[in-house]
Design goal:
By secondary structure, the chain is an all-alpha fold. It is 75% helix and 0% strand. Helix 1 packs antiparallel against helix 5 (89-102), helix 1 packs antiparallel against helix 10 and helix 9 (161-191) packs antiparallel against helix 10 (195-205).
Length: 320
């Protein structure tokens, strides 16, 4: 497979996963803050923007608006609609569509139609107005559309290199987004032991029903942490995502390469620890280190598969 095509598949998977994850996060945050005081609204949206690493861009964008918006309305527009924000859902879906279009011969026709259809459906709507006036309709459309695309990919694509690069991108993105969310929200669980915060965190990752089946009515933050970080059987947990990512790397042919070693270090840090050990070590520091290893893995995948210089290749040397 050409390196360019592999890279488009990898990033197509990442953008698709990011669109769904950001939508889940915005949906749950908006619902959580409906009856909250203004100070809590501002503080919570600030934490979300920092979690997504877009707070500076948001401040610059908001200061340039012709008409002022409330914090919630501004955050909804910036995270869902604003195309100048590369992490906005509309930007992610555009990027996922463009990457899919460039590899149409490698994905199924049904997968392309689902991806293109979701983009066109949203592009035909006045999202800037609807995300403020009818946000849950927009959230539902995006979440269902992304889940449909993933389902079509799983059911119609052979387990070849194209599928594996797509899945690798999706799983690395899921692991990073989930670890960021835990990093931001876990302290809130310790401060506010009400079911409200626990339910919000679990819903934002799509794990509420699984938690209730596993832990019943438990309100222990450590049980939430065990499910979202360490449960190897739950498809939204960090460990599950890393297991699937490692499986794809091995099958692609990077069983002992730089990317596999970086991912193996990230995975081992979870596989052989329990919640008490993570808390004793310092959860924030551990999650920071985990996210660093995930970025290292992504860079190593790029170096190994997308920007690789084969042995003996001629390299141009600049002359004075």
């Amino acid at each position: 497979m050409l390196a360019r095509l592999a890279e488009n598949l990898f990033w197509g998977g990442r953008y698709l996963e990011r669109a769904e994850d950001v939508t889940r996060l915005v949906d749950v945050t908006h619902h959580l803050l409906l009856e909250s005081p203004p100070a809590e609204v501002d503080r919570t949206w600030t934490a979300v923007l920092e979690q997504l690493h877009v707070s500076d861009g948001f401040d610059a964008w908001r200061s340039g608006l012709a008409a002022p918006l409330s914090t919630t309305d501004a955050a909804l527009r910036y995270l869902m609609v604003e195309r100048d924000n590369p992490s906005a859902v509309s930007s992610c879906l555009w990027s996922a569509r463009e990457n899919s279009r460039s590899v149409r011969e490698l994905i199924s026709a049904e997968a392309w139609e689902a991806t293109n259809g979701l983009f066109l459906k949203l592009n035909a709507r006045d999202l800037a107005a609807e995300v403020v006036d009818r946000p849950y309709d927009v959230f539902s459309t995006v979440k269902l559309g992304c889940q449909t695309i993933v389902g079509v990919l799983i059911e119609t694509m052979p387990r070849d290199e194209a599928y594996r690069f797509l899945t690798l991108g999706r799983m690395l993105e899921r692991a990073e987004m989930t670890s960021r969310l835990i990093d931001v929200r876990y302290e809130q669980l310790l401060v506010d032991r009400s079911a409200r915060q626990r339910v919000a965190l679990l819903r934002s990752i799509g794990a509420l029903e699984s938690f209730r089946r596993r832990y019943g009515v438990s309100n222990e933050p450590n049980d939430v942490l065990a499910l979202l970080l360490l449960d190897a059987d739950h498809p939204r947990s960090v460990l599950f995502a890393l297991d699937r990512a490692e499986e794809q790397l091995v099958r692609i042919g990077s069983g002992d390469g730089r990317a596999a070693r970086a991912l193996g270090r990230a995975r081992a840090g979870l596989r052989y620890r329990d919640v008490e050990e993570l808390l004793a070590e310092g959860l924030h520091d551990f999650l920071d280190a985990l996210q660093h290893r995930l970025r290292e893995t992504s860079d190593a995948v790029a170096a190994e598969f997308f920007r690789h210089t084969p042995p003996g290749a001629m390299i141009a040397v600049a002359t004075a």
